[in-house]
Specification:
2 strands; mainly alpha; Sodium/glucose cotransporter
């Protein structure tokens, strides 16, 4: 059986499973659609949360970013996992005890203000739409290679599948679909990693293989990777290099952490469990399920980078270094290169006209490159998002493993896309239409509005995914910055500051959101007008050396500061609101929860 047919069978079977689950778990009420009738088992919810959380950025893009930067991009791992600790300890149980369907619902009721609800909806939509771009981008990359269609066609296929199971099933259908997607993506991610770890180190556990001995050279794997990178003029893999300063690493890690704790599509998952205690239990199980992938990702990135380099330079000198005078002939490039060149995401250019592929850092070329007058890096395009998907082919693994990684990449992208689209849909139908525009709408009408909102959100996400502004993980990082700067401080103050009033919360959210959007727009030209950055995105132009990807932390600080300054100049929250906040925080009745 040829590879295309195998890919089609495995991916098609996974899609059929998702649609079948949606039909089985069809939402019949708004409670089903928004919160799965609050009847989800905490272990099931933990796995569904992990799938919701481990997006295309985690599955497809994160290892690629680590592979091509090294230690500096470990911030993605630290920030994203650390955020779940914050979420489990500080937010999830209290939000579940409050008993609402959505984040804007909580903010609107806690701050006794429709304006606060509206600002929360705007913040949610801005963050979620930015985030969903990364998911659609990841789906397009996976489709373009494994089903041999243009990435735009892949986007349309992915959108159609999400439309069926998300619009039909709502939170109830999405929950059980995400459980299946977690099983698919974790198996798809770990099996190739085990094979590759065995090939390179003889250790079947990638987490240990990363720190084991490289079989061919006898050196520790990371030492060997450092050696070949330095020889090619790149920075060593295990060091920290500009512009990734320690200052920016701290800010970026914190932005990802508090952004995680403020993500509305993740928070709403904790509204689906029966009891308050189950919310914390769900977060604990989610961390376990997430760790199964996140502890493997550094090994995948490191081993794939080494495999790519040794594919291009298959020969070594007597001292064990790469033989730069005997690179891979372009005509002899392996099948995985031919396959990915057809997608446009990998491209070579024979600049020297000598029929071989030379790969090195043209900005810091090795001595032999200068002596011989080589023309620069001839691998002119390598989209980092392809690395995990290409990994089984690079390591020459069996066809069924390649098909499995295709299904896993699509499962990761679609699971998070569905969660985000549900958050967008709920914000529009429940928080705008039901709570503000037409409070008298019937349950049937609200359910219809939710489904129509979901359809429009899918159409918008597809359109934006056709022209993404960056790699999947980079776009997602911006979304986390927006969540960190706008929603997280409001939720924290709503739970832990009894006196915080509506005016302070509104001013804080606006200051945090607008300052972060302005900074990102200034340097990255984001938000749907690519290339309109007002200043070059280079370190010397950054304000106080702060990267646009790290600004979410600063936005959060500005949010808190503006809120408390405003509170000092206005009256505190009414007494009944302060009593409500106190009742949320007291552990009394932890086994029960208010219902909406």
């Amino acid at each position: 059986m040829d590879q295309f047919t195998l890919n089609l069978i495995v991916v098609g079977a996974s899609f059929a499973l998702y649609v079948g689950i949606a039909i089985w778990a069809r939402a019949g009420t708004t409670s089903d659609f928004y919160a799965a009738s609050r009847g989800v088992n905490p272990i099931v919810n933990g796995a569904a949360t992990a799938a919701d959380w481990m997006s295309a950025a985690s599955f497809i893009s994160m290892a690629g970013l680590i592979a091509f930067v090294g230690y500096g991009n470990s911030t993605f791992l630290m920030g994203w996992t650390g955020g779940y600790v914050l979420l489990a300890l500080l937010l999830a149980p209290y939000l579940r005890k409050f008993g609402r369907f959505t984040v804007p619902d909580f903010i609107g009721d806690r701050f006794y203000s429709q304006t606060a609800r509206l600002v929360a909806v705007i913040s949610l939509l801005t963050m979620s739409i930015t985030y969903v771009i990364g998911q659609m981008t990841g789906a397009g990359v996976a489709f373009s290679r494994f089903l041999e269609v243009p990435s735009s066609t892949g986007l349309f296929i992915a959108s159609a599948v999400v439309f069926i199971y998300a619009v039909l099933g709502g939170m109830k259908g999405i929950t059980y679909t995400q459980l299946a997607q977690y099983c698919v993506l974790i198996v798809a991610y770990t099996i190739p990693a085990i094979f590759i770890s065995l090939q390179l180190t003889g250790n079947p556990l990638p987490q240990l293989g990363l720190f084991s001995t490289h079989t061919d050279s006898g050196l520790p794997l990371l030492t060997k990777l450092d050696q070949v990178l330095v020889q090619l003029g790149f920075h060593d893999y295990t060091g920290l290099h500009a512009p990734q300063t320690t200052f920016n690493m701290v800010l970026f890690t914190m932005s990802l952490m508090i952004g995680t704790a403020g993500l509305p599509h993740v928070i709403i998952r904790f509204f689906t469990v029966p009891k308050v205690s189950d919310a914390r239990l769900s977060a604990g199980w989610a961390l376990v399920f997430i760790a199964l992938l996140y502890t493997v990702a550094p090994a995948v990135g490191s081993m794939a980078r080494l495999n790519i380099i040794t594919t291009i330079y298959p020969h070594t000198t007597e001292t064990g270094e790469l033989d730069l005078e005997r690179p891979l002939a372009y005509a002899d490039r392996p099948q995985w290169m031919l396959n990915w060149e057809q997608t446009g995401l990998l491209r070579f250019e024979d600049k020297a006209g000598d029929g071989v592929i030379r790969y090195y850092n043209a900005a810091n070329p090795p001595a032999i490159a200068v002596e011989e007058g080589w023309q620069g890096n001839e691998m002119v395009t390598f989209n980092q998002d392809i690395l995990v998907l290409a990994n089984p082919e690079i390591a020459q693994l069996p066809g069924w493993v390649i098909a499995l990684i295709a299904a896993g990449g699509l499962a990761a992208a679609l699971s998070t896309a569905a969660g985000l689209l549900l958050a967008i849909s709920s914000a529009i139908s429940h928080d705008l239409i039901k709570s503000m525009i037409n409070p008298g709408i019937s349950e049937k009408g609200e359910l219809l509005a939710a489904r129509i909102s979901m359809a429009f959100a899918i159409a918008l996400a597809t359109w934006l995914g056709l022209n993404p502004p960056g790699f999947a993980a980079q776009v997602v990082a911006l979304a986390f910055g927006l969540a960190a700067a706008s929603l997280f401080p409001a939720i924290m103050m709503g739970i832990f500051s009894k006196k915080m009033n509506s005016t302070g919360a509104i001013v804080g959210m606006l200051v945090g959101l607008l300052s972060t959007v302005a900074y990102i727009f200034t340097y990255l030209g984001m938000f749907f007008i690519p290339g309109t950055n007002l200043l070059p995105n280079t370190q010397e132009y950054w304000l106080f050396g702060i990267s646009p990807l790290s600004f979410g932390t600063v936005g959060a600080i500005l949010n808190f500061a503006a809120a408390y300054i405003t509170l000092a100049m206005t009256k505190p929250a009414p007494k009944e609101i302060q009593e409500l906040v106190e009742s949320i925080r007291v552990p009394r009745g932890a086994g029960t929860a208010q219902s909406h």
